[in-house]
Specification:
With 221 residues, the chain is mainly α. Helix content is 45%, strand content 3%. Helix 7 crosses helix 11 and helix 9 packs antiparallel against helix 11.
Length: 221
Amino acid sequence: MFSITASAQNVPDTLEQRLKACTSCHGAQGRAGTDGYYPRIAGKPEGYLFNQLKNFRDGKRTFPMMTYMVANMSDDYLREIATYFSNQHPPYAAPQKPDMSPALLERGRVLVLHGDQDKKIPACVACHGQKLTGLAPFVPGIAGLPKDYLIAQLGAWQTGTRHAAAPDCMQLIANKLGPEDVAALSGWLAMQYVADGGVAAVFKGNPKGDYPLACGSIPGS
């Protein structure tokens, strides 16, 4: 007779096995699913992933499934999870091809690479790196993320349903973006090929002098 108890005992108690709850949405190794909404977490800097897990646990980010999963986890366990996914480097999916006008795509390119001085919006590359693959240990890559996910996160900052440690630099930036700006930069970023396998460069500068804004998620900035 089949024994449920015996079968359950044969499941290895490994971190990889426990994190199947994460990969069921974020894809194998955290490479992202095919629905264009759940983000890639594989290869993101450890400090960034740790901060986001804490933000979900502490209510600064709101997504019921994530909040439920991490609600009772300790900082040490969250860091262990962050370290695991930061060390995963599966291949990236092909870039998306959003149906956007050339003018809107050009607006996105300008915002990402140069910013908008009139609106006091810094270029995305000023924080996320010239190749947009992030700067370890705290700044994530944003090239190749799904357009719908990017729009949703910028909207969450604008509505106050997503927060980071004060001063919340991304909320300040997001609130300066109009609807067309959000669509433009999200569409342009989703179309970008991810350089160097998406591995974040290691930040070696002076946070206070090398970032355009003070950011609570980046110590010393």
